[in-house]
């Protein structure tokens, strides 16, 4: 891709009106996130027809998928953040090195996980919280997910590299096509071919392969600004460490989400398979809801990265303000809907299990009460990650499901039993909201100083 195309993209990202620019990039990203969440929920929905233990197994293996996502997002968003700032500073060759290094590193990680995961699959499932009745289902589901680990993790990198260039629509096409295919294949493999829970996993991996091929074709057909190639890999530790360091907030966010899910499953398992299934369903529902917020934030990230790299600090402020306000409104509406329709939503996945319905409804309503304040934590974390402040971003990303969640999931069930399990996440959300303010105060002080220096010169 010519340098002229890169310059044209830089001009678009640093001059187009902020609301239109962020919305244009965010809509395809939201669609991608929604489709991803929907096909994860489709697995839960179709598998729930097989029974409560099978539903619980999806929640167990979701922890494994979260680990794959954690590394994929670390390398993908780490690469993407650096690429946005490099393209904003007109450093095209350096951006290509970062993209290739992140992509091939993800493939290498996936292959290692496949080998070790298949060798130790039973202990791994037990470690993730599988009970004796859930273990056979979890094993059948997980072995196919492990076989596709390299494809899954590298797809996250391809997706994020395209978004970092401002090519969100291309990224959306690959994710959406795979997601829709998964929804179609799930009932065919599970019920028509009588493969049970293994059929859901096969459908997931086939759809992931299709997504990967579509995303890769964008680079092979030169639809991307950047070229991926083995020759472009940087073997310098500084470059790989820069990717990991920049993507570390995503690793903590996704990795801690996996640990939090395991801890939730382990604590819920004390109260039986119904509690594990209910918390699994609530987790999938909120993954769908939060995909709207995260999708909007991911549309914002390349804008703030490009403009910070180009020294357009006033546009950085405008981007943050616009994204935060819109996110608060969206989550407020979804929180209200969740409070009202919680029983109906949970009922979609219960197969007439009254205990799952009762536990799930309470947990969902509790999380909805804290939903409307979540945007501040997400947007703050994404902002610091995009402008090259990994320490602040890493700490904030660790708060929701690490710094606050992990102590609470140990303490609250001791005090309030199952209610403590259900209330852990909303209380962690409230504490994360509070802790964002000092970080943002300091950030805006520094940003205003940069703007004043520019205006003075």
TrEMBL record:
Its main location: membrane. InterPro entries: MATE_fam, MATE_MepA-like, MATE_MepA_subfamily, MdtK-like. The keyword Transport applies. GO terms for cellular component: plasma membrane. It comes from the Bacteria. One of its GO terms (molecular function) is xenobiotic transmembrane transporter activity. It is a multi-pass membrane protein. This is Multidrug export protein MepA. It comes from Holdemania filiformis.
